Amino acid sequence: MLRGALSIILSLVAWSAHAGQSFMAIAYHDVRSDVAADYDPDPLAVSTQNLAAHFAWLHHHGYTPVSIDDLIAAAHGERPLPEKAVLLTFDDGLKSVYTDVFPLLKIFKYPAVVSVVSDWIEMPPGQTVDYGERQLARDDFISWAEAREMRASGLVEIASHSADLHRGIVANPQANSMPAAVSRAYLDGRYESYEAFHARIAFDLARSVKAIRTAVGSAPRVMTWPYGKYLSSSLDLAASHGMPVSLTLDTGINTLPDLARIRRILIRENPGIYEFSAELLLPQDNPIVRAAQVDLDYVYDEDPVQQKANLDALIERIKELQISHVFLQAFADPDADGAADALYFPNRHLPVRADLFSRVAWQLKTRSDVRVYAWMPLLAFRSKEFDPAWQVVEQSADGRKPDPDSESRLSPFHPEARRVIREIYQDLATYADFDGILFHDDGRLNENEDASAAAMDSYRRQFGDDFEISLAHDDPELGKRWSRFKTRTLIDFGNELIWILRQQQPELKTARNLFAPAALDESSETWLAQSLDLFLESYDYVVLMAMPYLENDDDPDRYLERLAVAVARHDGGLERTIFELQAIDWRTGTAIPATILYRQMRRLQAAGVKHLAYYPDDFVADRPALDQLRQGISLADYPFRHR
């Protein structure tokens, strides 16, 4: 058996000739004849009539449902996938997959994957499990005899959906319940260790595999992760238990190298033919972004009652706005100087102001239905424990020292500074669930930075020059090379951090703040070490600080129009640039009226801008005013609030 699993794994690596073949995968759950047409308590339920219509639509439009055998054979190079290949999957092992789905599979001769939670099938009489808004008992799920019958038909692949991971566990000090398959349990004031977490997942997978092999006659080859949540390390663990194919709820089209984490279209709200066909035919990627950048410092309060009130105010406001993203501060900056003095998650190197990021991120995701990006410094971490030699320093007439007008930053060239930052990011990924990373605007270096010995040594190793910053001032070409060297160093270091985060959050999206001069003037790379073209190549999104008051421009509207024109000149510029407006004029400390923000947003949209954000959001004081702001930034079909 192990040899067979290893054979599959090795075959999945050898994908040369057929690596470009693509397929879609669809995730269904409950299928019932009595699903309400307009509203059903189970948002994942589909009516039997609609499922039959989906199958008929696939047939009439040239789609070919494929089996796991077909996918593995194509990965082996034995036979190609058909055009318009689609994988049908049904999660949770509900009774309806036998009573309603299986007859349709036989009529259409369609293969499918049925994923079962083994502990649910083996529940003793009288026990129930939470299933959304319902309590389900043993008879609400298929029996092992029914699973054997479906498998014997040759149409159904029985997959593992875990033994007991399809539930929430307490995962932070506030007792939030989070997915058991990816969260460190929090018990008796302590987080579960990595070793204990890994052992818990391994034990569950082993139990599930044994139960399915014993009851059905063959071990599962497919692991379907509960709630679509998984870690990179868990994919390897599943493969080691004979399941090299994994099903997720990530979105997008699959190619054969994706068998280790197949993306699926989640079917919700009982779609009819028009809605179903739109799910398959319309692009799944590059949705319009509407984002609020939020200071967690505004949520934090020493009084837990007030802190909860602040959090509730934030959740309700974001829900009312009906936007898509929140860029949520994961570091503490109470003195507002741009450097992280503490963090909002457990870590090895800085004080924990409060273990709050995990809770707020999860609440925003589940209650306000937004994607949450952790907003984090790239370099600006400050501690008395850090060696001063780790800092970015500037060369000036009176020697080399940190710029007194800038926040404290660690040098991206110093190996110990890099180690500390990498470990901070590793801790962030360990103790929170989030969708993306936004690198803060501290990722910059002016023409006199970084004059540290580590930076000079790194430059000399790469170019072999006997280099000093003063030489770059006198030689324009040398100056450009020095600036580009720093730009790429910052990007490369960011990529190291992204790789670390993706070990825990495999589908993590990336964004980085860009100062507006980098879009308007290519020579600004000299004093910023930032490049719009390189950022567009390196990140999913560029968050452009479209802040005319910050740049002391006398004509804000004209300034924003110039920015839009400048970004449009770059390949993919408007597709992947988020224009972030300022909600405070920091020169005077006064709030910018929401009516002005609304006007600016409309002007940018008229100029072709797709993605919008603003900062900061003062949800406690209702600034910017919700009614006007919603009209400018909401993704709602009707952005006006009902009275």
Keywords:
TIM Barrel, 643 residues, single chain, globular, 31 strands, 8-stranded parallel beta barrel, alpha/beta, 22 helices
Quickly name the level 1 CATH class of the largest domain: Alpha Beta
Q: What spatial form do the alpha-carbon principal axes imply? A: globular
What is the total number of structural domains?
2
Task: Please give the order of strands in the largest beta sheet.
Answer: 18-19-22-25-26-27-28-31
Task: Quote the beta fraction.
Answer: 15-25%
| Helical stretch tally | 22
What is the first-to-last residue Cα distance? 64 Å
Strands, count: 31
Structural class: alpha/beta
CATH architecture of the largest domain: Alpha-Beta Barrel
CATH H level, superfamily name of the largest domain: Glycosidases
Q: Portion of residues in helices? A: 25-40%
Rg value = 27 Å
What does this structure look like?
The protein has 643 residues and is α/β, with parallel strands linked by helices. The strands form ten sheets. It has an eight-stranded parallel barrel. Strands 1, 4, 5, 6, 9, 16 and 17 form a seven-stranded mixed beta sheet that branches. It has a two-stranded parallel sheet with strand order 2-3.
